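Q: We require from you a single protein entry containing the residue sequence and its fold in token form, and nothing else.
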Amino acid sequence: MFTSKNCSRYATDLDAFSSDDDLFIIRETVEEYVYGFPYHLPDGTISRPLTWPEEGRFDNRGEALWVDDSFMGNALALDLGMLTGEQEHVLEAAR
């Protein structure tokens, strides 16, 4: 079981986010915007459609990875797993 006490880096950082309100916001954000993001590659990686609206091309030209999406989404999923001890969030972030 993962807990914030298992990893010294998180022992102090995540203790500040232990209120029920903060945990609710983190969980809702992960569920809605990380796991619920509308575009994912077949392996589950968050992606975005390639379009060029400024050129009038709204059709999907392919898929692109945005590093900030992956970095921020995975970090928040990891935090959720470390706070709650729910291993599936940690494994999802590591995938």
Residues 4-94 form one domain. Residues 4 and 11 are 5 Å apart (CA to CA). The radius of gyration is 16 Å. The chain is about 50% helix and 5% strand.
